[in-house]
Amino acid sequence: MTQTNKYGRRGRQLRSGSSGAVAKTLDPKFFKALCDPNRISLLLRLAGCGRACTVSELNSCCPIDLSVVSRHLGVLRDAGIIESEKRGKQVYYTVCAVEVIATLRSIANALEGCCCCEPKSRQEKKK
Amino acid sequence: MTQTNKYGRRGRQLRSGSSGAVAKTLDPKFFKALCDPNRISLLLRLAGCGRACTVSELNSCCPIDLSVVSRHLGVLRDAGIIESEKRGKQVYYTVCAVEVIATLRSIANALEGCCCCEPKSRQEKKK
DNA sequence: TCTATACTTGCATTATGACGCAAACGAACA
DNA sequence: TGTTCGTTTGCGTCATAATGCAAGTATAGA
Questions:
Q1: How confident is the model at residue B36 (pLDDT cuts 50, 70, 90)?
Q2: CA dihedral A26, B124, B118, A72 (to 10 degrees)
């Protein structure tokens, strides 16, 4: 899959072997979804809530219009970070925790594999 | 530390206990640094290179002006993702792999701790 | 069928970020 | 001390993204 930046050109293929694994996991869409402070707030609220929440409930954590909250949730959903389920008039959102955790760990593992840092087996709990 | 969004207000303190750990790790600055495709390219190039690289070397992986590359590297450095060292006329950049990996894993762990997903010990390979 | 509620979408405005060019900066070297 | 090379910074331009308001859609219930 060829990435294209917003200026049209670009057709990067990565240098070589090991970095390919990182390339696959480092999706700008994922990070883009997390780079807005309000989206982080919404995600934290949702994560901390421990249950599915409606748009209105989540709105209380951000001083922004409900419509904007709805749009932010859409961005997070499109990035696969949260998912939604409609029940009656309301839409309930939940964090795709398992998937997000897996994504984060696979990026970490891929980075570990391609950079010349400690191998996974003897990784130290360095702080 | 109180977060402030670009509209001035905002002073979120998270709901409660466990999500605080996620809040500490979910820094928009970190994600913001990774949400640009050119910065991802630079990071991949640097990671795949396996050694310190100069700005000029890294420039070859992106069809953008050298000055822009320099700025992108600055963003990555400010986010703690890469670090720089000046040697003579040149500036060598390297990935802070250990730190980045630790950050990713701590986010994953915090998320695991605060969401009601499977505990780490018996997490199933669902899906 | 009408109304209320919950949410989404269209649109215009504003803010933020990426970009290239040119100039500035700092180190090496003649 | 002047020149060259590698990099950074200033600045204006353009693209993208965030926002609020208003209007639209869908479901529940009177």
A1: very high
A2: 30
**Tokens 């750990």 label which residue?**
B21
Query: How far: A9 CA to C1 C1' (Å)?
Result: 56
Q: What is the pLDDT of residues A4-14, one digit of tens each?
A: 333 333 333 33
- How does DSSP assign A9-38, residue by residue? ------SSTTHHHHHHH--HHHHHHTSSHH
Task: State the pLDDT confidence band at A50, using cuts at 50, 70 and 90.
Answer: confident
Q: Which nucleotides of C are covered by protein (CB under 7 A)?
A: 4-10, 15-23, 26-28
Phi, psi (rounded to 5 degrees) for A56: -60, -40
| Å between B54 CA and nearest CA of chain A | 16
Does B96 fall in a domain? yes
Q: Is residue B69 part of a domain?
A: yes
Nucleotides of D under 7 A from a protein CB: 5-10, 15-23, 26-28
Q: Which domain holds residue A106?
A: 21-110
| Chain segment B55-72, per-residue pLDDT in tens | 999 999 889 999 999 999
A35: CATH: 1.10.10.10
Closest nucleotide to B54: CA versus each C1': D6
